[in-house]
Design brief:
The chain is built from 5 helices and 4 strands; from the N terminus they run βββααβααα. By secondary structure, the protein is of the alpha+beta class. It folds into 2 domains: about 1-55, no CATH class; about 70-119, no CATH class.
Length: about 120
């Protein structure tokens, strides 16, 4: 199941086809804790179409924010490069304090860091 924002409607793609919801506002539609259930209900009352939506827009509404995309990735990549030069014990302790409550292993950390170094 996929959800598209278009100029004319919200479009639900399901195995039977495309469902065009023309009287729905994007922000109100997607900001619902029961979104999946809402989509299933709309599919039941609308007829499917085989026409693919032509004018697909970015899936972001007027009231939503998108902050600093890519900045975190770049910073982590640079930090990862610095860590490769550190002793293994120091890397492990840094990752341990960062990942409290998560399961991880030293092998997993080293694989992640080495992948960063290769790029």
């Amino acid at each position: 199941m996929k959800l598209y924002k278009t100029k004319q409607a919200i479009v639900i793609e399901n195995e039977n086809g495309f469902y065009f919801l023309e009287n729905e506002k994007w922000d109100e539609f997607i900001n619902d804790d029961e979104l999946f259930q809402k989509i299933k209900e709309r599919i039941k009352v609308h007829s499917p179409s085989q026409n693919h939506p032509n004018d697909v827009l970015a899936p972001i509404g007027s009231g939503q924010e998108l902050g600093a995309c890519g900045v975190t990735y770049l910073r982590s990549k640079m930090e990862g490069r610095k860590k490769v030069k550190m002793p293994v014990e120091e890397i492990f302790m840094q990752e341990y304090t960062k990942r409290k409550g998560q399961r991880f292993s030293l092998k997993q950390i080293l694989i992640e860091l080495l992948d960063i170094k290769k790029k």
